[in-house]
């Protein structure tokens, strides 16, 4: 008997890190690693579940920058080169490990794994979106959108036109790729405030994913906490994150990924091997980077790591997936007794956790779904869209402004380290609005420049850059990206307003920042394209 539902939601995002102007850009490897360790392994999981006639439903947000990069010919060619190099390195490692059966066994595992990745990549014609679109069409996967460049929307509400441009562009980009409009949205960083409601409603969005605080602190207080969605006065539904299931994966103390049998993330051949040996497989500038060949398991808080044992890791995956399923089952049974509609447990995570940070993550998802299909469970897997279709009557509340960042507010993205970003962006937003209201009947060249100005502004608005600055990771790169896009925007603004457009420079920038080929700058002005977008 079904007493409730579990909704697993994977947020898939990469900032736009396409750099054809740079030889072997370090940042492009972020995407290639995610393709190797997260996206293709998940595609394999979904395909195997379908082959085994396992009924399941899962939700993935795929952000517009990630969609764009997964469809990009240049990046796909670069990834194919990267994957073939990885296979070549494993072949050398198998030979190098001769005489050490344990080490050689791991090298063989990686060689088999990389060859399987290549096989799947070829199967989908070197375009991973072909796989995700297939799962969407078959009804197993509900793909939701995000803002156009993962901009933290509440920090833009001084210029609501800029928020609307982010949403409109995201919807149009989604329709162009998937072929139909999205039902839901992952608000970047789960950052919500009241100003977003009418815009999301206007563009046909039915629901969004929120931090637990947004629902738990809603007004009036929700009757069932995060076990049920709440609806704003605009009939926009918020699904709050379940904290119990979140802690079992995210927590550094009790989370599954920290188990000693799992693969150690921070130990990679790219740093351990002699430079003369590893040089062809790291950055061409001689910078040591991860190769994806990690031979050790977590072991414990010691530098004396033991070799990774795949069999033991898979046994632990089964144990943890069963424990996770049993936990959700217990929650459903307990909540069901006190609710009119069956409860729903919403489990949102970054996709990149599953496979990149937690190597065994896709295997965990596979085992959890298989457990969930068994007769002992009192829940079914569903998506937020499917749940609302079955149970459209939702309590009306005003969700609390919040995010899933530290402190549950926006302070990760707005603090002493990065506050300067918004002053410049807000000025550019005002200039873009002015352009859209001024150039109502542009020449073809002006239109190209206006569209590129919109692209540059949106790329500068990405929440990734202030996040990186706050966390002190690749700060130089993040600052450079913000400044590059602001500088390009300002040059375009000056060229347009002075009627002195540099065609050669414009053409080059269009090739570099080629996201959103169908963007229309008029989304910032009075002649918005909302009706066209929603009707698809």
UniProtKB/TrEMBL annotation:
SUPFAM superfamilies: Families 57/38 glycoside transferase middle domain (SSF88688), Glycoside hydrolase/deacetylase (SSF88713). Residues 425-524 form the 1,4-alpha-glucan branching enzyme C-terminal domain. The active site is at 189 (nucleophile), 350 (proton donor). Substrate binds at residues 241, 258, 404, 464. One of its GO terms (molecular function) is 1,4-alpha-glucan branching enzyme activity. GO terms for cellular component: extracellular region. CDD domains: GH57N_AmyC_like. Keywords: Carbohydrate metabolism. One of its GO terms (biological process) is alpha-glucan biosynthetic process. InterPro entries: 57_glycoside_trans_central, BE_C, Branching_enz_MT3115-like, Glyco_hydro/deAcase_b/a-brl, Glyco_hydro_38_N_sf, Glyco_hydro_57/38_cen_sf, Glyco_hydro_57_N. Residues 8-321 form the Glycoside hydrolase family 57 N-terminal domain. Belongs to the glycosyl hydrolase 57 family. This is DUF1957 domain-containing protein. It comes from Clostridium bovifaecis.
């Amino acid at each position: 008997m079904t007493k409730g539902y579990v909704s697993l939601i994977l947020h898939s995002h990469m900032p736009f890190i396409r750099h054809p102007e740079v030889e072997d850009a370090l940042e492009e490897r972020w995407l290639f690693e995610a393709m190797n360790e997260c996206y293709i392994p998940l595609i394999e999981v979904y395909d195997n579940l379908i082959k085994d006639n396992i009924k399941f439903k899962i939700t993935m947000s795929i952000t517009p920058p990630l969609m764009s990069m997964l469809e990009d010919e240049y990046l796909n060619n670069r990834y194919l080169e990267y994957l073939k190099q990885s296979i070549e390195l494993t072949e050398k490692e198998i030979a190098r490990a001769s005489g050490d059966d344990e080490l050689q066994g791991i090298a063989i595992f990686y060689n088999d794994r990389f060859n399987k990745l290549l096989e799947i990549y070829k199967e989908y014609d070197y375009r991973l979106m072909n796989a995700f679109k297939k799962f969407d069409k078959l009804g197993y996967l509900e793909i939701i959108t995000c803002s156009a460049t993962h901009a933290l929307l509440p920090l833009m509400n001084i210029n609501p036109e800029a928020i609307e441009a982010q949403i409109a562009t995201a919807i149009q980009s989604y329709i162009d790729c998937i072929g139909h409009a999205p039902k839901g949205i992952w608000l970047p960083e789960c950052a919500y405030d009241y100003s977003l409601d009418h815009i999301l409603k206007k563009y046909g969005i039915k629901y969004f994913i929120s931090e637990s605080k947004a629902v738990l602190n809603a007004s009036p207080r929700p009757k069932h906490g995060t076990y049920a969605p709440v609806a704003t006065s605009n009939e926009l539904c918020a699904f709050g994150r379940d904290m119990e299931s979140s802690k079992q994966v995210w927590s550094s103390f009790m989370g599954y990924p920290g188990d000693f049998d799992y693969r150690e993330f921070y130990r990679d051949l790219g740093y351990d091997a002699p430079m003369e040996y590893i040089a062809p497989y790291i950055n061409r500038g001689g910078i040591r980077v991860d190769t994806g060949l990690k031979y050790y398991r977590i072991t414990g808080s010691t530098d004396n790591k033991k070799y990774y044992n795949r069999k033991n890791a898979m046994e632990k995956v089964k144990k943890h997936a069963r424990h996770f399923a049993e936990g959700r089952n217990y929650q459903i049974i307990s909540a069901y007794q006190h609710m009119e509609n069956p409860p729903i447990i919403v489990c949102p995570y970054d996709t990149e956790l599953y496979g990149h940070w937690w190597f065994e993550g896709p295997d965990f998802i596979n085992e959890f779904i298989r457990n969930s299909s068994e007769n002992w469970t009192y829940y079914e897997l569903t998506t937020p869209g499917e749940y609302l279709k079955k149970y459209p009557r939702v309590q009306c509340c005003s969700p609390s402004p919040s995010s899933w960042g530290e402190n549950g507010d926006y302070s990760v993205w707005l603090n002493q380290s990065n506050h300067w970003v918004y002053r410049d962006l807000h000025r550019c937003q005002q200039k873009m609005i002015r352009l859209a209201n001024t150039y109502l009947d542009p020449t073809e060249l002006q239109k190209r420049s206006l569209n590129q100005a919109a692209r540059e502004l949106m790329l500068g608005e990405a929440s990734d850059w202030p996040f990186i600055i706050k966390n002190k990771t690749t700060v130089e790169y993040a600052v450079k990206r913000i400044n590059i896009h602001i500088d390009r925007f300002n040059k375009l603004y000056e060229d347009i307003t002075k009627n002195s457009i540099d065609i050669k420079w414009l053409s080059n920038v269009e090739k570099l920042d080629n996201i959103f080929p169908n963007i229309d700058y008029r989304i910032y002005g009075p002649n918005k394209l909302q009706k066209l977008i929603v009707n698809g």
